[in-house]
């Protein structure tokens, strides 16, 4: 298998492959979807943001989008709280819609809801909103970085509080995945702007050599192996069979037919990536209830994939079994007639991650040991560097994130520094191996759910949610309540 | 009096005025001076530093100078500590030589000493070390900022520790004045690089409207008033007399003669600035023992100035009295024959501060109320903005420092966040009004010396040091010892 950059949400190495399923673009249907569920809609706002916070020679600005919902807000006179989502690498509507937890607890806390879009994503595109210019080269893309994004959030929040005359309203930041990393880092770097952070499934330790590069795929392996030994063995054995088949005469055409790939394009690498994507994201979103985050999925989709593989009806044909599994991820709705390996659409606007992965977000996840469900491979930094050089003309800075944000010996460093961070991780999530899994101090705590997947705690709740998930959310609410108690008490203290 | 930018060390508005006293350049005489006192010398090193840490489109680097002394170091095998001085706005030799405290306690702690020069100062000039280019315009100067400087320090320290295989050696940062601000901010932003900071006379609250713009000159007023009411009155009254005299025929020439100004240049504003400089820096360096930081000065120079003013021998001539006071600051050695108001020399290489004051370091210090020893005036941001616009073509960002580093409600923010910072302030120091003067938490503490001046604690000790100063240093050593105890204990803890 070829090297690929793994997005926090999306396998992102050429070729990218999406199934031909009904479009899941949110911008048009966002409010409808929220209100159709009897839930909340947001007001869209734009803030004139500084393009370069760290250099004064550049007076350029851009329009940064943020969504606002004040239905439950207790108002500035009561110093009622503000919940801010620190947007990740995509359209903010997408993350807003998938962070029902904030809406659901806003009523309890009388909180204002703010979802800030990350620069260079969604509608928050510098250079007059022109994505073609903004993404054209390393000079324009140079302003796309986590450090600038955090400074954006600080600047916007302070300005918003001033405008609302809500100076003393406490701010709590929330984020999942890369957004969770940003939330945790935001609390660490801007404690004067936020009193606490809920960092859900934030792999802040997936840098340098803190976390093994085998960890990510090991967890995926365990997810499938845990369902059934046979399921694991079939998937593990399939790669060699695909490789062998691809080498034979008409082998690619046979593979195309086996996997219902559309006629326009087939290659061994593309097929492998397409399958890899399905396994990775199914493991990541192995939620206990049906979901529609990346694709529409049933509850416990890993189990469903293994069911398809273990199904006696699928006979002994490995490709048929693997196709059945892929079908769970790519075609749960049953509408697809064929799968387009040549579909480079990007419905959530995630393209900027390639740049981020080529500069600071060098997260080694690509290793596969002997037991891996994927073919053995080593994490190879040079491969990444080469890709980035030829794609953008940049050399990654693999040590920058640990220099700027730390990570090594995090327990020792934060044991007596900082406070008020919740690190949630679900152990079925491949990213969880690079999360904070143990309490660091009394107020920098880890909540670990053995059965949980990627930021499952932030999803809209459901009656079908298992008990452990309800308990996780309850604990999060309690901790956040304590932050507020402490904060409001401190407002009355005289210094 | 005209608006002026106040450097942490130097009045820095045109015209700058220095006395014709023997040169005090350190680069040539630095090692000699240290060794002549039987003290320590340093090894000069250069580190290839990234010019822009926050943008990846720019692969440029520059040579950053740092001084190293390992005479007392206990070595990496013992995880012996590293003391780092976070350099301020000038040649690093100058700060090194004036931070004897680090040398003196290094033996006790078996510490390695590292003094890092701030980018754009001394020999740490980007653009191939060419100051003419580096300082030529806002594009090149754009990289001169505190945020970049802090990232420099993090990058250099991590690299140095790697090279010394001293990964587990704890780092404590020290700094005075702007260097003290950097030290405090460094601990807050980079807790993974340093275990604690001694921030001496760091006016981190002199931003936005946290500290009154009258505070600075109020303290100077008090310093002189505290010595003698007459002294205060004479100085306070002198400005009007100078103004009146300047308006008369031959008035400027009379003033020139009264103040022994050289023939080449005289103007009312330049004379006023020259006197203002003397009062400000004498108040700042009102040390209990003779010093040679800015100019050679006697012990308690404010007292000496007032003595000159109150001296019955100086008769009733205000100018003669004020001249006597200025002479304490400008001519303690007695070598000056006349004072050159047209001398724009910059022996410590502080010129970059004008840029910093025009971008982020907007520190309101210029207000004078009715009681001020200086003529009444209001802090006027627009005046600053205009100056910066015409000088550099930039608009200051007066809210940036509080956005990036905080400051408002610092007690509330840091009471449960962060640890291990000592804020030292001497209350005779005009900057002390913008310092942290009360303990914030158990380990973010304020040490306040009523009789102290600008970072007096960091100076070389002397047998003549008063008891309170010895006690301040003792307390600092004890606190730092505790940081180490905690740190070494945590090395043995298993997570």
Automatic annotation (TrEMBL), chains A, B:
InterPro entries: AB_hydrolase_fold (IPR029058), Peptidase_S28 (IPR008758), Ser_carbopepase_S28_SKS (IPR042269). GO terms for molecular function: peptidase activity. One of its GO terms (biological process) is proteolysis. Keywords: Glycoprotein, Hydrolase, Protease, Signal. Residues 1-19 form the signal peptide. Coiled coil: none annotated. The keyword Coiled coil does not apply. Pfam families: Peptidase_S28 (PF05577). Belongs to the peptidase S28 family. This is Lysosomal Pro-X carboxypeptidase. It comes from Solanum stoloniferum. The lineage of its organism: Eukaryota, Viridiplantae, Streptophyta, Embryophyta, Tracheophyta.
